[in-house]
Amino acid sequence: MKVTPFELNDENSLFSWHVNILQLRKKHIIFVNDFSRLCIIIDGIRSGQLVKLQQKFVTEFKGYLKLQGVENSHIDQYLLEAGEIVIGKTTDRSVLGTMKEMSLYCEGVEFDHAIDLSVWLNRLIYRPIDYEKPIQVFMKTLKERYAK
Fold first, then answer.
1. What are 91-132's pLDDT values in tens digits?
2. Average pLDDT over the chain, rounded to an integer
3. Is residue 57 scored above 70 in pLDDT?
4. Which pLDDT does position 14 carry in this prediction?
5. From CA 133, how far away is CA 124, in angstroms rounded?
6. Whole-angstrom distance, CA of residue 34 vs CA of residue 47
7. Which DSSP string corresponds to the chain?
8. Phi/psi at 43 (nearest 5 deg)?
9. pLDDT at 85
10. For residue 12, which phi and psi values (nearest 5 degrees)?
11. Which pLDDT score, from 0 to 100, does residue 73 have?
């Protein structure tokens, strides 16, 4: 993304996301949450547009979670608690492996919109989250964390 990443301190994996470029018919950017393996696919961003990428991620993230029925208050609380977006290096081979697995699933698959691809990938099961679906893991965690 044409930025110099730095080493991050121990962070809460619920607020940590891995990002990479996903080459389909055109370039997409895939965000994968370390804790739940929830993914958000974004298109229309070039590698030099870091600020635009951050803004579009937040917009797409909110829209996707609303589409999945997550309460607005839970989304807002999550983003508030997550704080500022920073980019750092990773050595988490498990998340990188899941990201690679997702990219393999995408080969030959066509969707009209990136959000449809996110919905599809988040309904598949993955070993690192005990063969659960990422959307279910993420939603359950938000409900438990932000229930009134």
1. 688 988 998 899 899 888 888 888 999 999 999 999 999 999
2. 86
3. yes
4. 92
5. 6
6. 22
7. --S--B---S--GGG-EEEEEEESSSEEEEEEETTT--EEEEES--TT-HHHHHHHHHHHHHHHHHHTT--HHHHHHHHHHH-S---B----HHHHHHHHHHHHHHTT---SSHHHHHHHHTTS-BGGGTTB-HHHHHHHHHHHHH--
8. -125, 170
9. 76
10. -75, 120
11. 95
Identify whether the C-beta of residue 60 lies closer than 8 Å to the C-beta of residue 42.
yes
Q: Check: CB of residue 29 under 8 Å from CB of residue 21.
A: yes
Is residue 2 left, alpha or beta, with left meaning phi > 0 and alpha meaning psi from -120 to 50? Answer: left
Residue with tokens 């990479």: 20
Q: CA distances (Å), 92 to each of 32, 77, 88, 118, 119, in order?
A: 12, 26, 12, 22, 24
User: Shortest CA distance to 28 belongs to which of 94, 131, 111, 135?
Assistant: 111
Cβ burial, residue 23 (10 Å; 0-12/13-18/19+):
exposed
